[in-house]
Each structure stands twice: as C-alpha cells, then as structure tokens.
Amino acid sequence: MNSKNNEITRRGFVKTTGVALAGSMFVSPAFASILNDSTKKRKVALVGTGSRGNSFYGQFLKEEYGDVIEFVGLCDINEGRLAYSKKNIGLDCPTFTDFDEMINSIDIDLLMVTTVDSTHDEFIIKGLNKNIDVLTEKPMTTDEHKCQSIIDAQRKSKGKLIMAFNYRYGKVFTKLKEIIESKEIGDLVSVDLNWYLNTYHGADYFRRWHGLRDKSGTLLLHKSAHHFDLLNWIIGSDPVEVYANGALEKYGKNNAFRGENCRSCNHTKECDFYYDITKNERYMDMYVANEKYDDYTRDNCLYREEIDIFDKMSVLVKYANNVEVTYSLTTYSPFEGFRFAFNGKEGRLETQEGIPWRDSKPEDQSKLHQKEMDNTSHTKMEHKYHEIVSQRNFEDFKRIEFPYVRSGHWGGDKLMFDDIFRGENLKLGLNHAADVRDGSLAVLIGIAARKSIDSGKPIKISELTDLVPKINKWS
C-alpha cells in the first residue's frame, strides 16, 4: 500500500477549508441573551485570583477584550494575592475579600468563578440568585448534591450559567467532530481516549490543593471534566452508566521520604520531583509572598500523607445512544499527550499527540503545559500538523495533515471567548457553547467514576441528580 496516495496534502487541505470558511464568521445565537448593547462594555467581576484567574481570566481578557468588557470587581480571601493580582492584571477597580460584599455593592453583568473547585457552587448559586450571568471554570462542582443545587438555581434564575469548556473549541477537536458528523466512518460505536500527563504537569497537581479530595473532587473532576465534556460533545449523547477503577500508587504516602515543602526539604538531591519555586518570579510574588494570609503553599511535597486522590484512573462509560467509551488518565507518564480513536460501523478515525517516537524532534517535556496554557506565545512550533487518520472498511486509509496548534488549548481559548464576548463563532452548527447541563454531565461522569472506584460497583447517572439522560443531546 502506498500511503502517499492516501494523503491529503497541506496545500489541498488549506485550499478546500479556506473556501469553506470564507465569509463564515456569523454572530452566534448561543450567547445572544447575555450580550450587552454593542455600544456598552459588559461589567465583569472575578472571584479567585490564582494563576488561572490572573492569566486567563485577567490579563488575557483585559488585553484581548478590553473594548467590550470592563472589570468592576476583584475578589479573593487572600488579601496579599488580591493586591498582587490587581497590579499584575493592570486593573483600576474595587477589590474585596468578602464575596457577599462585592456582589451586593456593585453592578455586575457577568461573574467569573476561578476559585478552588469545591467552592464553585457557592459563588455560582449566589450569582444566579442575583440573576447575574456566571462564567465558571471547570469542573462545575465536585459532588452530586452541589450539582443538583446549581441545576435548581439555574432553573429559577434569569441569569445564565456558562461553562468554560475551551477544549471543545480547540481546532483539532472541532475537526474530529466534523468528521464524525459527516458519517465518514458511519454511526459511532465506541471511543478510546488515553490521556497522558507527564512527570512535570501531572506531578504538579499533587503539590497543590488538587491533591485533596475535599477540594478538587479528585482529578476525575478537576482534569477529566475537560475530557468527559469533549466525549459528551463529540458523541452527541448523554452518559447513562459508569464503571471505573483507580488507585493512589505513586504519590502521597507511596514513598520512603517526604518533606514539608520543596523549599525546606532535606531530600532535594535524591528526589526526582524536586521543584525549585524560587526560580519562578511570578509564583514567588503571587504565592510565596502571600502564604502568611492563608497558609496556601504552592510547592507542597507531593509525597505528603494527606493526599487522598487517585493517580491512575480507568473509566468505562455507556451512553444513551449505545456508544461505549474506554478512558484512562495517567499522571506520571514520561511524555505529555493523548491517543484518541473512534470506531464506527463503517470505519475508524484516530489521532494522537505527543508520542515521542512518532515525532521527528522530541519536545521539552517541562515546557509542554506552558505551551498549552499560553495565549500570548507566537513562537515557531516544531510540529506542523496534527495527523488525523481515517479508514473506511475495505478501503485504504486517508491521512489528514491538520495545521498544528498547541497554545491556548489548541486554539480554543480565543475562539471560546470570541463566542462569549463578541457573539462570533466560525462553526455555528457544532454546538460549542456549553451550559449548566453540559457542566453537570461532565462532572457527573467523574462523580460516578469516583463512587464506582470507592464501591466497586457501576453507577447510573440518573441516580445522582434529576437530569434525565437523552439519546440525542440537542433534541
């Protein structure tokens, strides 16, 4: 078989997609009810001024959308980090350490929530109860009771909850959904998704509050909510049953030595995971300088015994339309990436990213997550394409060389905010906009998986909240 005959060249791909995209920038109806008069700036307030709040919801929004939004309030329980954030983002607005004072004293069009995951529900519900639109980071919340409370609040509110599911806006994931919906491989039957966090990115979760179940709900919520939403969105149906396995075998108590934190540790020379936060000026100013206000330590020991989340996870999900998913999350892989495969009745579609032996030039693993999060980097990428391979039954395979994008969550960050703040979306028919139902179903898979691991039994999604799974998500 000559694979060259089956390749779609970059020139041909760009030519055909360029024609399709020409003139296709439409005004999205998804957020029409929350867009202000075009002559007025939307008044936004932010609660939670950690790294995500500072960069993604702070600096990036101010720089890219300052013509359509105005920051009117900034809130955090840590007064030192609050002062740092106001200066770092470059804001001239009131700051608050008391959320109730902020929400009751200023006029807000949109509240943005970027706090510790287990507290999302408090701020979402208070915002919705005031009939304010709310934009929240994933995961929407961390247990089924909080999830139900948010659902109930949304039903009574004139405000709208928006889920910041930027992965579904990512260019390569949008392309995968388009191919699936074109029936290139027929009706979808099953999906395999393996996600790998490397020893830099994966380990970092265990240094922070994410390593505690009562704050993050485990990585099945904090990290996997991205992946579960992506699966829900591409499959186009709702999950109905979940069975999972998982354990804590690498981090936490699974080590012979540990320290209070990396700065004060006596084992720096023998620890493969030693992290010198003093070399990160931003984190020193944002976190270390402000530990005295709330005792939050950014460079905690990832072997501390209080860690109680899983560091390996595998999940089986059955959908209302009978599609079945096998999913795994690895938190100490030597490389960062994923393998995504779709099996249809007429063929198979697959793609991968970050598999070192498939790349001509290995990437610096310590900088990969920075590239994903970076919305300002325009440095030249070593990779030119995402390789997507499609093969129909009884036919040769076709290789699509899709233009490579890594920064800004595969280009999804800006596309999501363009949709939310400008009402612009290049792909109106793909239902990118995510609401309370999308946020709920993503976390309910994670909650069900956590319950399944704890109990050893499969968990039905319908038993967790009053949401009734649909065969077709948009019916």
Automatic annotation (TrEMBL):
Record carries keyword Signal: yes
Record's signal peptide: 1-32
Gfo/Idh/MocA-like oxidoreductase N-terminal domain residues: 43-164
Gfo/Idh/MocA-like oxidoreductase C-terminal domain sequence ranges: 177-461
Keywords for the protein's UniProt record, in alphabetical order: Signal
A GO MF term: nucleotide binding
UniProt region (Disordered), positions on chain: 352-381
PANTHER family given in the database record: BILIVERDIN REDUCTASE A, BINDING ROSSMANN FOLD OXIDOREDUCTASE, PUTATIVE (AFU_ORTHOLOGUE AFUA_4G00560)-RELATED
Protein name per its UniProtKB record: Oxidoreductase family, C-terminal alpha/beta domain
